[in-house]
Every structure is written in C-alpha cells, then in structure tokens.
Amino acid sequence: MRVGIHPVSRPVVYRDRAADVAFLTRSTADSARTIEWEDGNTYPVIDVEVSSASHPFYTGTSRVMDSAGRVERFERRYGRAASSTR
C-alpha cells in the first residue's frame, strides 16, 4: 500500500437517537462533538437517524404509509393544473 493516501481510521461512537442506542466502532468519519464511553475514554460521536436498532427491516416492525395523504400533498404542492394541461 502507498503511504499517506489512506484516511486515518479511529474509534467513533455512532448514536441512534430514535432507538436511544449507541455503539463504538472504527471509522474514518470525524466529529467535533465527543462523548465519554463506558470504558472511560472520550470518543467523537456521530448521530444517525437510522441504524439496525431502529430500522423496520431489522426490528420486524412495519410502518403504515399514508399514500393518499402523500398524493394530496403532491397535488397541493405542484397543483392539478400541470397534469390537466396535456
């Protein structure tokens, strides 16, 4: 491997706020915010919206999609006039 072209890999805490779960792993990502971990050391923390602890595929839960509401919101935003001018 060539020297000096690879990013530095370091321990980082990823925190899933939706599931209130955090896990320590290695990553090249960096953050200005830090957190004190269970071992007493301080690590950079990165907040994520979805992880295996909160994703419906891994948890076995399903979410109901309101498709009618989505269509109405689309029509309000872009108007029905655009589709009827053809």
TrEMBL record:
Any single GO molecular-function term of the entry would be: structural constituent of ribosome
Q: Which InterPro entries match?
A: Ribosomal_bL28/bL31-like_sf, Ribosomal_bL31, Ribosomal_bL31_B, Ribosomal_bL31_sf
Q: Which PROSITE patterns match?
A: RIBOSOMAL_L31
One Pfam family recorded for the sequence: Ribosomal_L31
This protein's GO CC annotations: ribonucleoprotein complex; ribosome
Task: Respond yes or no to whether keyword Ribonucleoprotein is given for this record.
Answer: yes
Coiled coil regions in record = none
Swiss-Prot/TrEMBL GO biological process terms: translation
Tell me which UniProt keywords the record has, alphabetically.
Answer: Ribonucleoprotein, Ribosomal protein
Q: Does the keyword Ribosomal protein apply?
A: yes
Q: Which family does it belong to?
A: Belongs to the bacterial ribosomal protein bL31 family. Type B subfamily.
Q: How does it assemble?
A: Part of the 50S ribosomal subunit.
Q: State the name under which the record lists this protein.
A: Large ribosomal subunit protein bL31B
Organism per entry? Streptomyces liliifuscus
